[in-house]
Amino acid sequence: MDIQNISRAAAFTAKDGSEIRELLAHRNSCIQKQSLAEARLPPGASTTPHYHPLTEEIYYILAGTGRMTIGEEKREVGPGDAIAIPPGAVHTITTTSSVPLKFLCCCAPGYEDSDTVLV
Question: Which domains, ranges and CATH numbers included, belong to the chain?
Answer without folding.
Answer: 41-111 (2.60.120.10)
